[in-house]
C-alpha cells in the first residue's frame, strides 16, 4: 500500500472553515433515557487537478438531527429507538439517516428499520475519523470513495440480529426486502432494484499484552431485478485491526465482483489500510486504498483529522488524492480538500 503517498505537487489546496451549531438535550427518568441531538454545519471544499462534479457547489450547509430513547426492564432487557436524519448525502453508497427500533438482552440484539447490516458494522478495515478520509465527504465534490467493506445494502430497511460477544467472538445476520436507488430514472439501467438482501458478518477480538487484536469477515448477497439488467450483489470482505491506547491500525480486503453492475467479468477488488491516533481533544488519520477491476482502477490516499479548539468548537479537515480510470472514460486525477468548523453547546 502507498499510505500517504502522492500528497505533494497538486496538494497546494487552500483549507477553509465554515460555521456550525450543535445542541444535546438529555432526559433521564428511572429506567427511561431520552436524548436529542441537533447540528447545523457548513463545509467548504477545494479541488485541484480535476474538474469538480458538474453542478456541485464548493460549500454545503447541512442540518442534522437525532432522537434516541430506550427503556430498561426490571429483567435487564433494553427496548429503544434511534431516529437520525441529515441533509448530508455523500453518495448513494452512504445513507443520509437511520430510523430503527431495537431490543437487546443476554441473547443478543435485534434491530428493525433503516440501519446498516453486520457486513458493515462488524467489519475491520482502514480506520476513518472526522470527515472519513478515503471513505469520506470528499466524494461530494470530486473523486470516488473506497468501499472499505463488502458492497452492502447500506441503510435500506432491514431486520438485523447481532449476537452477544462470547470470548471475543460475535456474529450477525440481516435481511433487507429490497435495496432501491434512482427508482425514478427513465432508463431502467440507471436504477438499483435489488431484493432479498442477506448480510452475514463475524468478528473476533482478543487482548495480547498492551494490544487488542481483531479479525472480521462479511458476506452480502441480493438478487437484481431483471428490468435493470444489473448483476446480483455478491460481495465479501475480510479485515484485521490492532489497537493500543489511542493508536488504531487497520487493513481490509474487499471482493465486490460484479455486484450491481451492468457488466459481467468486472471483478472489482480493493485493498485498504490506514492508521489513526485519537485523543479527546484531537485526532489524526491516514489511509489509502488500491481498487482494481477489468480496465478500471482507483487509487486513493488521504490524511485528515479533528481538533477541539475549545469545549464548544471543533474543526475537521481532510485532504484526499484520487486517481481513477475507467477504460471507457477519461482518467480523473486530482486532490480534494474539505474542511468543516462546528460549534456545539
Give a summary of the structure in a few sentences.
With 345 residues, this protein is mainly beta. It has one helix and 17 strands. β7 (157-162) and β8 (169-181) form a beta hairpin.
Q: Topology as H/E string?
A: EEEEEEHEEEEEEEEEEE
Going by CATH, the architecture of the domain at 76-302 would be Beta Barrel
Radius of gyration: 20 Å
Category by helix and strand content = mainly beta
Q: Order of strands side by side in the largest beta sheet?
A: 2-3-4-5-6-7-8-9-10-11-12-13-14-15-16-17
In terms of DSSP E residues, the strand content is over 45%
CATH fold-level label of the domain at 76-302: Porin
Q: Please tally the helical runs, counting DSSP H or I stretches of 4 or more residues.
A: 1
Helix content: under 10%
Uncertain segments: 1-24, 91-95
What CATH first level of the domain at 76-302 would be assigned? Mainly Beta
Shape: globular
Mean of all residue-level pLDDT scores? 89
* Sheet with the most strands, sense and barrel status: 16 strands, antiparallel, barrel
How would you portray this structure in words?
The structure is a single chain. This protein starts with 19 loop residues before the first strand and ends with a strand. It has a 16-stranded antiparallel β-barrel with strand order 2-3-4-5-6-7-8-9-10-11-12-13-14-15-16-17. It is mainly β. It is built from one helix and 17 strands. The model is unreliable at 1-24 and 91-95 (pLDDT under 50). It is globular, with a radius of gyration of 20 Å. It has a domain at 76-302: Beta Barrel (Porin). The longest helix has 4 residues, at 118-121. It has one helix spanning 118-121, and strands at 20-29, 32-48, 59-72, 78-86, 97-105, 108-114, 157-162, 169-181, 192-208, 211-224, 233-244, 247-257, 268-278, 282-293, 296-310, 313-326, 332-343.
